[in-house]
Specification:
The protein is of the alpha/beta class. It is 31% helix and 31% strand. Strands 2-3-1-4-11-5 form a six-stranded mixed β-sheet. The chain has a five-stranded mixed β-sheet with strand order 8-7-9-6-10. The chain is elongated, with a radius of gyration of 19 Å. The structure holds 1-O-pyrophosphono-5-O-phosphono-alpha-D-ribofuranose.
Length: 211
């Protein structure tokens, strides 16, 4: 049986649809319950619903054979796994954002609130700008509003969250989308089925004109 780690939440809904489109239906996932593991005997797969930021850990450590995860999570961590396909889903950008009237003070480190400290550090060190990282776990947009930080480094998809909190994008520096990933030893031992899923997903993308 193939274990597939799927992200719960906003990206999850798009991912389930995409899997259903290649015959890997997991509609039971939509049932209004708190179940986190779903089996499909028909396809001989088990779906594990995990936090989006944990998908790569499950796959890298072999608790799941494959998974679908945002490129942001892959870039923030350092995971030993294979990235098989860009699914062109959950397309968004990693951005620097701040209050509409923000003016940078070049004489001191920029205080950066983020869920992605490694991505933020890499970005600012690419032009040798000193920063002070404030690691938060969510609702990052509040930080500059309350003066906890000067800017945020965060994902922007529709831009609604920024707009509704009187913030705006200053730099858009990293395109993000969902990726199909595989555990390295699973890929060796279950390569046939993993390659089959990968090519079906790729064919679907071609059919939709996305690649
Ligand atoms: C993400 C991100 C932004 C928001 C951007 O948060 O951190 O807050 O989505 O989306 P938008 O541009 O479409 O408004 P998420 O929904 O994952 O919640 P969180 O703040 O709890 O991390």
């Amino acid at each position: 049986m193939l274990n597939i780690a799927l992200p719960k939440g906003r990206l999850g809904d798009k991912v389930y649809e995409r899997l259903a489109s290649i015959g890997y239906d997991c509609s039971e996932i939509y049932a209004d319950n708190r179940k986190l593991v779903f089996e499909s005997e028909e396809n001989n797969v088990r779906y594990l619903l995990v936090k989006p930021s944990d998908v790569a850990i499950y796959v890298a450590r072999g608790a799941a054979d494959i998974g679908i995860v945002g490129k942001d999570i892959l870039d923030e961590g350092n995971f030993d796994l294979y990235e098989l396909l860009d699914l062109r889903l959950g397309v968004c950008n990693m951005c620097v954002a701040a209050k509409n009237d923000y003016v940078e003070d070049p004489n001191r480190p920029i205080r950066v609130a983020t869920k992605f400290p490694n991505i933020a550090k890499r970005y600012y060190s690419s032009f040798n700008r000193e920063i002070d990282i404030i690691k938060l776990n969510g609702s990052i947009e509040i930080a500059p509003l309350l003066g906890l930080s000067d800017v945020i480094v965060d994902i922007v998809e529709t831009g609604t969250t920024l707009k509704e909190n009187n913030l705006r994008v200053y730099e858009k520096f990293l395109p993000i989308s969902a990726r199909l990933i595989a555990n390295k030893s699973s890929y060796r031992f279950k390569g046939d089925v993993i390659n089959d899923i990968t090519s079906k997903l790729r064919e679907q993308l071609i059919k939709e004109g996305k690649i």
